[in-house]
Amino acid sequence: MNLFSKLFHRKSANVPPIPPFSEIVEMMYDKSLSFSEDLQVIKVIYNEEKTKRFILLKSVNGYYKYTYEELCVFDEEEWMYICNQENALPAWWAPKDRSFAYSFFGTEDEALKMLMQEGEFKQYFDEK
Question: 32 with 92: CB under 8 angstroms?
């Protein structure tokens, strides 16, 4: 066994296994919902599997906007390198839309009506 193999084997021996996907989904529910102090989370809408979400936000100026995020899970190799960091999680919420920076609405109802017109909402959140 060469030096690289010994080091890799020692490192991988200390790596906790990645939790099952269902546990990751439950673990990540309502995580990473912090935004700038100018934005307050008003409502979080998850799809049935809890792997996608829309977040409705209110600015200090009284305007509303929303953002769309999807749950992304580290693969085993990535997990091996981050698992020993303090507060390491096996997944993260990734923003998946461009509307977050540009769409502002005067009321919560107006923002929710527009959110329901989004293609992702119709595809993943509408009850069939």
Answer: yes
Report phi then psi at 115, rounded to 5: -60, -40
Q: How many CB atoms lie within 10 A of CB 19?
A: 16
How long a stretch of residues is the chain?
128
Give yes or no for a contact between 60 and 122, defined as CB atoms under 8 angstroms apart: no
Residue 44's beta-bridge partner residues? 55
8 Å CB contact between 52 and 67: no
Mind listing the pLDDT tens digit for each residue in 83-100?
888 888 999 999 987 656
The 3-state DSSP class for residue 4 equals helix
DSSP 79-105: HHHHTTSTT--SEEEEE--SGGGT--B
Q: What is the pTM of this model?
A: 0.81
Is the four-CA dihedral 30, 36, 37, 38 of positive or negative sign?
Answer: negative
